[in-house]
Fold these 2 entries.
Entry 1:
Amino acid sequence: MADEVDEQPKPVVQSAAPQEFNSGDEPLTVRLKRFAEQVIEEAFPDTPAERRLLRPAMIEALAEHKPYSRSEFVEMIPKYLRDATEPKEAHRFLDRILEILECNEVNTEVLR
């Protein structure tokens, strides 16, 4: 009977919709920063700022080089930036960030 305790279900916390970060309405750097704040920092609140996947130096490098795959990320992003990144954040969110970068390119080409 202990399983039948009258508890209210906990609300499900929804992160921002993936499409929200793919929109070309905002500059890429703004969308990456927003993704960092609304998604990554929510999932990993204890990561030191200098180890965050989307810290300012990494956002700058991603916006400049625009890798679309993990192999391009390794080729284009300097090793010192990759080495200083929290592996758990990169493992969980790198593919999503690469998708944002790729969608940015598609949106940019459509506007041309």
Note: The radius of gyration is 17 Å.
Entry 2:
Amino acid sequence: MATTTEDVRPALGRLGVRALLTVSAVLAAALVYLLFVTVGGYELRVPETPGSSVSRPMEFGEMVGAATIACFAGLAFLTVLERFTPKALTIWTVAAVLLYLATLPYLPGFRVMDRVIIVLMHTALAAVLILGLRRTAARPV
């Protein structure tokens, strides 16, 4: 019996795998939200405006919407970079990590537990998205 080694490609292709990864990243953040807010009964509150002392509840839909936009923007940025530079993966990874760090809740107006939950949501999303998209990135030949 002869065996051959072939390049096995996923049935979805790279774009399909990337789309699945972005959805998985959103689901990871949603899972954190659901565990703390829905199951745990905690009311996650965010400032009405940056730095405001007045807060409002963060709704599930707005969290999912913001996460989805951020994930697909990251995917689009990586895809565009890959067309124009062989250093796309490095540039994208640095930008993604910097954006992750910049969007953590540093400003006043957050309670401690609000900060913890938001950091956990950010971390879950970033871990899936950054590590996953790095694995699917086009490598320079």
Note: The radius of gyration is 18 Å.
